[in-house]
Specification:
Elements: E1 3-7, H1 11-22, E2 26-30, H2 39-45, E3 49-51, H3 54-60, E4 63-66, E5 85-88, H4 94-97, H5 101-104, H6 110-117, E6 122-125, E7 149-154, H7 157-170, E8 173-176, H8 199-208
Parallel strand pairs: 1-2, 1-4, 2-3, 4-5, 5-6, 7-8
Antiparallel strand pairs: 6-7
Length: 215
């Protein structure tokens, strides 16, 4: 059985955990406040979930989801994630995270910065442009006319393929927008951001994206 490490147990992390357990995964969850603060969530999730430190969740996961505020990405442990696929759910909110010139000036991407922080991991974008509550409610069977699509991006084909398969297990189609340098196309203030959309609609929204300087 595949174990999914989840670093960040907020709205997105908790919903990914619920969907993953329903799909047959074990999950090991961490937050910034300590494993003991996750007791209620782990009890709700059941026998296929346990709480750990961030380093332990990183070590335990065959694949690891990073879902912390962007301003905290540099705190993600590097060594336990060496050689692993890492799924990044992040978006940049300068009002919360503080201004980052490389992002404000469109010289980098959110997930590209995590990839630089984790040079021995294979990072892919995932779950960043869907409301948390929709992760466990909007899935549809493959082939359904109203099946929602989500995007991924990665510099590594196997990482993008893993996200594609995970989306499918959760009930979503996938649009691969390319390398991490293109991952901004599905982030905040873009047409694809948190919009329920089919695969064809997501492809069109990705094409319509325009990169703007931060306010």
């Amino acid at each position: 059985m595949t174990t999914l490490g989840i670093i960040g147990a907020g709205h997105i992390g908790s919903q990914v955990a619920r969907a993953a357990i329903a799909a047959g995964y074990d999950v090991v969850m961490a937050n910034s406040r300590g494993p003991e603060t996750l007791a209620a969530l782990v009890a709700e999730l059941g026998e296929h979930a346990r709480a750990a430190t961030a380093a332990d969740a990183a070590a335990a996961g065959d694949v690891v989801v990073v879902t912390v505020p962007f301003k905290s990405y540099a705190s993600i442990p590097v060594e336990p994630l060496a050689g692993k696929i890492v799924i990044d759910t992040n978006n940049y909110y300068w009002e919360r995270d503080g201004h980052v010139p490389a992002l404000d000036e469109r010289r980098h991407t959110v997930t590209g910065l995590l990839q630089e922080h984790l040079p021995t991991s294979r990072v892919a974008k995932g779950f960043n442009h869907i409301m948390a509550k929709d992760i466990t409610t909007d899935g549809r069977p493959a082939g359904a006319s109203d099946r929602r699509a989500l995007a991924t991006a990665s510099d590594f084909a196997d990482a993008a393929a893993f996200v594609t398969d995970l989306y499918d297990q959760f009930g979503f189609d996938t649009v691969n927008v390319g390398p991490l340098s293109e991952s901004w196309r599905v982030e905040r203030d873009q047409p694809a951001y948190v919009a329920p959309q089919t695969r064809d609609q997501l492809v069109a929204n990705v094409a319509r994206a325009q990169r703007q300087l931060a306010a």
